[in-house]
Every structure is written in C-alpha cells, then in structure tokens.
UniProtKB/TrEMBL annotation:
It comes from Streptomyces varsoviensis. One of its GO terms (molecular function) is kinase activity. It holds the Pfam family CBS. Residues 8-66, 73-131 form the CBS domain. This is Histidine kinase. It comes from the Bacteria. InterPro entries: CBS_dom (IPR000644), CBS_dom_sf (IPR046342), Diverse_CBS-Domain (IPR051257).
Length: 138
C-alpha cells in the first residue's frame, strides 16, 4: 500500500504566521492551491489556512485582510500525517478530523501536502466512497 510520501504533493510552501491575509490570498492564487500550511518563525507548523477560511473567517466577518495575520486563523495543534503513514492511516485521519488536506511531516519537517484527491487515487473504490461520506457528514 502506498504511503504519504508516495502520493503527496512535495515541497509545500508555507504562509508565515505573521503574514497578513492579503499576502496569503495572493500566494494561494499564485500557486493555484486552495490551502497553505501556516509556519511560525520557529519553522514549526501552526496550522493550515484555506481559501474558505479567508472568505468565512476574515471577509465574511468584516475583518481587514491587511491587518489580520494568518497565525490568527491557526486553530490549536495542526492535524498532520507522517511521511511513512499508509493510505489507510491517511484515510482514518482525514475522516476523524473532517479535513480534506493534510500537511505531511517527516519528524518535525514539513515535506509536502496531501489532498483528498491524492488519497482517492490511492485507495480502492469502496474506501474512497467511505472517505467522501465521512468528510461530508456533519
């Protein structure tokens, strides 16, 4: 069975915890992605910022995207997956935490990102349906 490092998108770029949301939105746009890991000045992963976070938690609440920083949107400890964890473990982690994207770490180093589509391609068909159902339920 494939492991995370086999199916991830390698070399994920971070948005800095102190970067403002406007900078983060431009980075999402430039990279053509829907999520970026949030990294602190200590090079530790602080969370994941999604395009939805920007719309709902910043714009939707009338906050200024130039004054709001990415670190303000990091919620507790980031949910991650180990680089050598297999597709079943990735599936279980995504379902348990109701997330569609996971940072992949090797020790404490961010080595990539894995998205729902990556896992769907790696899992047998019945598990893919289970994952989509688990992520879609409230």
């Amino acid at each position: 069975m494939p492991v995370a490092r086999d199916i991830m998108t390698p070399s994920a770029e971070c948005v800095g915890a102190e970067d403002n949301i406007l900078t983060a939105a431009r980075k999402l746009t430039d990279l053509g992605v829907g999520a970026l890991p949030i990294c602190g000045t200590d090079n530790r992963l602080k969370g994941v910022l999604t395009d939805r976070d920007i719309v709902v938690k910043v714009l939707g609440k009338g906050k200024d995207p130039e004054k709001t920083v990415a670190g303000d949107l990091a919620q507790g400890e980031a949910v991650t997956i180990g680089a050598d964890d297999d597709a079943d473990e990735i599936f279980a982690t995504m379902a348990q935490h109701q997330v569609r994207r996971l940072p992949v770490i090797d020790g404490h180093t961010l080595v990539g990102m894995i998205a729902l589509a990556d896992v769907a391609r790696a899992l047998p068909d019945p598990q893919t349906g289970d994952l989509l159902e688990a992520l879609s339920s409230n």
